[in-house]
Amino acid sequence: MQRAFFVEWFLMLAACLVLATGLGAAAAGWAAESGTPTAADGAAPAASGPTTTAAPAATAEPAPTVVVNDAAALATAVRDQPEGVVIEIAPGEYRLERTLELKAGQTLRGAGIDKTILTHTDSWKPATSTLPDPEVRIEGLDTDAYLIRIKRDTKGVVISDMTLQAPQLHGAIFSWFHEGLHLHHLRIKNTLWSGIRTFGMKQAKIHDCEFIDAGGRWERGKPGVKGGITGGGIFACWMSECEVYNNRFLRTNPAREREYYGLKIRQAKQSRIHHNTIEVNFSIEMPFENDEDVEIDHNVLFGTVSLPKHAGGPVPKSGRTFHIHHNWFRDSYSIEFVRNGVEISHNLFDFDPQKDHGNLISGFGNAAAPGPAEFHNNLVNNPGRGVIWINEPYNNLTVRNNHIIARPTATPRKDGLFGLNPRSDMKTIAIRDNIIECLELPRPLFRNAESYSARVENNRLTGVSDAEKLGNAPTDRPIGPEKPLKFTCGVHDEFTVDQWQARPNSAGSASER
Question: What is the CB neighbour count within 10 angstroms for residue 146?
Answer without folding.
Answer: 27
